Amino acid sequence: MLRTILSFLRDKHYRNLLFATVSVLVIGTVTYHYLEQWTWLDSLYFSIITLTTVGYGDFSPQTDWGKIFTIIYIIIGVGLILTFINTVYNHFKNIPQDHFNQKN
Question: Of 3.30.230.10, 1.10.287.70, 1.20.140.10, 3.40.190.10, which CATH number belongs to 11-92?
Fold first, then answer.
């Protein structure tokens, strides 16, 4: 399993996609922390549930700037996050099952 994860990270395309995904989540987390005065954990939580389109509804921006940021954040981020999730899924789907059963 560790070998599989390392092979994923060695690939430039995957690595760039991971970097972009983490960057978008960090930008969202920092922005919500300062605009909405949420804790770091709540800000990260909201960033993730927003971009994965889960949206439980337990948090929502209360400031006008928070709402404006969320509109832009969703337009930019949802496609990126879904691409990342799909890429990870396809990467692991294409690995033979016996690869997972080998000891590292």
Answer: 1.10.287.70
